[in-house]
User: Fold these one by one.
Assistant:
Number 1:
Amino acid sequence: MQNLLFIDGRFQAALAGGTIDVLSPSDGALITRIAAAEAADVDLAVAAAQRAFPAWSALAAAERGRLLLKLADKIEEHAEELAQLESRDTGHPIRDSRALDVPRTAACFRYFGGMADKIEGTVIPVEAGFLNYVQRKPIGVVGQIVPWNFPLMFTSWKMGPALAAGNTVVIKPSELTPLSTLRIAELMQEVGFPAGVVNVVPGYGHTAGQRLAEHHGVGKIAFTGSTVTGRRIVEASQGNLKRVQLELGGKGANIVFEDADLEAAINGAAWAIFHNQGQACIAGSRLILHERIADEFLERFTDLARSIRLGDPLDPHTEMGPLTSALHRDRVLAYADIAREQGGRILTGGKAPSDPELAAGYYVEPTVVEAQPGDRVAQEEVFGPFVTVLRFSTDEQALAIANGTQYGLGSGLWTRDLQRAHRMAANIRAGMCWINCYKRVSPGSPFGGLGESGYGREMGFEAIHDYTEARSVWVNVDAQIRPHYQR
Ligand code: NDP
């Protein structure tokens, strides 16, 4: 497959000739070397997207939709290949890439393919004699920066609504995991997307990413990543006051009440934190347990954590793969020391596995730590297979702990009490709340955060709104109504 930049419908080397090594997270071996976009390459990509915009936005909406639907079919035809590519590049267990990442990517493109010709305007009931209608128009060129944790899926979350609404795209995947986005570009070419509609510029954040965020030819920048980088994006966007959409970090509160179905809650809590090695902004990384069930819960939960099979991401029996980079593995492991220094108790994990077969990869054991709500491990996003346990005795306490961070993205609660469930869901400060489940997503349901988890929404009509401008048109429909100053 291609390992070059994709600009104006052609795969090409970076102008300065730079490359980046893409390493396998399971053994550190070189997978391939890709072209590294720098500012001048981003400029070329934005210029190509600007040239493509008039024709793409003028194309019948159903035609844009048809291309997205064809792409969804194409992704399904190449499902196994894409699953393998994603697992090799990111470390996702292949069973997850097959069952989740690839189908969800196809479903997202299909959803927005179907949406393309349903982006309707509105007629506003204004005073007699006037017709006021509002159209939703594409913004223009949008810049999109996707991180390394779900590169394939996030490519569809970002590109699907942008393209359906008639925008053209310059997308920068993380230099750690660029392969599935480049492969999607090839498939887009095959199904007939016109040149320049989508441009892919893998490169470093501080060069290519920064240039995209500050570029005056870009009308909107959509970013998924850390809150720290999110702030930089906002600063960089100021030059032309471009629109900004931020999907940032999280510290998901997952509350288990004393009346919960414990078996379901234990399994659900493990899924909430250990899926994708905990590298998810919505991960249920704070497990908030009612004191009456906490001891039994923790005994069973830590047993389950210890039983999770770590291994080669391409082995279908593997339940947890390596973290995506060595740097990130070290960052996650450092949090075990931070927990200990603040008096936290490591109940299991907190280290790399001892299995010599895993020694070359970036693995971390499933880690369960008991701490206090103000501790760093209860406040900061660890972004690994690392869950912080906190205890509570009343609903009010549970809510105060849940809402006691800067973040507000994913959250969950486990209870059989219907009234309590709805009451809590209404009061947890988070963009998403799952009741007796966790981490459910659908292309139709808005996804995004509050507070320092960012703003704007992916998915559904909300995403279409975020990728369009409302234009209001006033028509005088009554000949008797004259302009002012008429003599
Ligand atoms: P970053 O936020 O630094 O990176 C995310 C993306 O932004 C990457 O493509 C990165 O490129 C790019 N980027 C970095 N700096 C800039 C910049 N100045 N301008 C534009 N783009 C930029 O995350 P990290 O990879 O450093 O991970 C650190 C932490 O971030 C994690 O531990 C986790 O807590 C959080 N995170 C959250 C994610 C989420 O889904 N919300 C996803 C990833 C990380 P490059 O790779 O070259 O730096």
Number 2:
Amino acid sequence: MSAQNTRVLPFGPEAVAEAARLIGEGQPVAVPTETVYGLAADATNGEAVARIYAAKGRPSFNPLIVHVRNLDQATEFTSFDEEACELATRYWPGPLTLIVPLKENIPIASLVTAGLATVAVRAPAHPAMQALLDAVGRPLAAPSANASGRISPTRADHVLASLGGRIPLIVDAGPTRHGIESTIVAATGGPLRLLRPGPIDLGLSVAAARVIEAPGQLESHYAPEKPLRLDARAAEPGEWLIGFDAVAGDVSLSPSGDLVEAAARLFALLHEADRQDRPAIAVAPIPEQGLGAAINDRLRRAAAPRGRG
Ligand code: TXA
Ligand code: MG
């Protein structure tokens, strides 16, 4: 990613308008929430979400939290059961993230959920993030606004030190109130499960770590059902080939070899490959630079031999 000038604007109408303009162009922008500063992009634009990962230099894709204005906006693309509704009604806007089932045929980019059928949503209480959500009119995907491996930013200068030169704008509203990330609770059927402790204490203890028997079995990771072969330059019999660059394939992550486009299409094409009536999947070589490292990380996990079951 080429170096760019990172502007820091104090929170106000001008900063919000500029942030909304950049987000409309598919750029990620740093904006405070009541927990930590987030790096926000249009959750309906896969390439914009890919640019979050590019800016953070994150070597893997984790599902991101989708920020919404309120429960009404959340239920445009998710299903809340009664218990989840009660929690949202009681704690939103605020530092509570709920993992809920995603509806089908909704415009949320598959890179946001890293291909999962569930999604993390929260309605933040901070006026800057609220103003940005109002101005954009769409849900915003936002992880904490720090480079991979660095601590979460609670002030604009933390963001600047970590992501300066990699993002166009930081909206500065001073230190955040909580300073730790939101509480995450899964409400996907069965008892509620605490996945990450945070500012809101619901009296739940952290869900017991589940034994990982195979890549993709962990709740927060998607992997295709079928065997997957990497570094394929041509399909072998029975394989559905996902191409890239000069390898055309049955479908292509990016015919022009663009890694932002490839990241944006990765999970949708893995799902598509799983649905074909061919027993195996092959994927063309992806260069290990920039977003390619995160793409390869996910593909290597998907290709690793499966455990029992
Ligand atoms: O306070 C916060 O939550 C901040 C602000 C910016 O809102 N955001 C934040 O996002 O901490 P992030 O991306 O750093 O953490 C999101 C966490 C990750 O640990 C991810 O694995 C989990 O949420 N997560 C997201 N979707 C999930 C899903 N469908 N199932 C399980 N875990 C999920
Ligand atoms: Mg984080």
